[in-house]
Amino acid sequence: xxxxxxxxxxxxxxxxxxxxxxxxxxxxxxxxxxxxxxxxxxxxxxxxxxxxxxxxxxxxxxxxxxxxxxxxxxxxxxxxxxxxxxxxxxxxxxxxxxxxxxxxxxxxxxxxxxxxxxxxxxxxxxxxxxxxxxxxxxxxxxxxxxxxxxxxxxxxxxxxxxxxxxxxxxxxxxxxxxxxxxxxxxxxxxxxxxxxxxxxxxxxxxxxxxxxxxxxxxxxxxxxxxxxxxxxxxxxxxxxxxxxxxxxxxxxxxxxxxxxxxxxxxxxxxxxxxxxxxxxxxxxxxxxxxxxxxxxxxxxxxxxxxxxxxxxxxxxxxxxxxxxxxxxxxxxxxxxxxxxxxxxxxxxxxxxxxxxxxxxxxxxxxxxxxxxxxxxxxxxxxxxxxxxxxxxxxxxxxxxxxxxxxxxxxxxxxxxxxxxxxxxxxxxxxxxxxxxxxxxxxxxxxxxxxxxxxxxxxxxxxxxxxxxxxxxxxxxxxxxxxxxxxxx
Length: 488
Known about the structure:
- The protein is of the alpha/beta class.
- The protein is 31% helix and 26% strand.
- Strand 7 and strand 8 form a beta hairpin.
């Protein structure tokens, strides 16, 4: 059996302030979205950092990450990114080390060069530091995270050697936001993983990764075998048309004033961005659409780029309340703005928890045949192998042998199958009214375990039965089960 690298999925939070929201509401909701992401099974959450603009109202990603780490127990929390051109590298290393040790190793630091914006003037670091000082800043940061003592005698930093306490022992290397061949070369030369942004598609991501690998092939230590991270917009609705319409309606109200907040410190002109065209681009190149459409987009990104770690920007629908999906009538008229990231997290759970062609890919020799109704297949869910029999009512083959993998001289075929989780009896909490459960509603599981669960997406009520209390059967769409192979 051939097993590939595990895929990981995170949420990416810009702390975007949409019309009608205060900065305080946005920050509080950002933390709540991370709590929801942990409950939904995401691997990590990443917080962006911006200054003096509504595009993102978190000026200290490290500070907000500390709060989020205190509210959670499993999920990793990172910065995407801390702006290194506006910070002293040693101070940032100290803060990162505090979070690393206090959280039990769940903090991940991401850094970026930033831009020629007014924060350089406000914080006194200056334009020269942005234009020429990033390599020196990055090297000093890495030294402060990995050494017991650190000193500097460079162009931008000069100070006597001091002990690092706490040190960053055990911390993963920082990620570097890479938007150009220059920053790619900088990261590759140091063997640091890249964070690739929202504004580029699969082709551009693949090209930057290829550049990074070429540097590794040239003999730069540590540049090969590094796991990179890419940010994508993630938005799921009943249909692709509805998902695109929701983002097209909501995002311009955030992007237009938000992007206007980028003010160059030296008065240089910057090209104006066509907001409508930008939203259209994001919807086309990212998983925005129906569950099946998003599955297709994500698997295509995996195949085209080799990436196995995507982080989903979940705030795109955070403006006006989106049209409710089918089976979501009870939510009609409810304000969606404060809870939009949390709602998007639950909707994406369908994909990132159940779409695991990368988390645990299983290949079995299928010979020349495909997978049909009645076939018994081996499924890897989590760490357990189980055999299931495909039934027309419960499974649908979505991809037959998209590629062949050579393993041990044998050709192994793969396929992806969509199935049903099955039915689960639930009782609405509180008033046992005869109604359809809706997204986020707390219900009591009436199965073998009586426990409280949150519905991750609209449940389809199949049956209402009454025996003292009202119960209803809610089916959960399983999404992409796994990569399958016929058993035996």
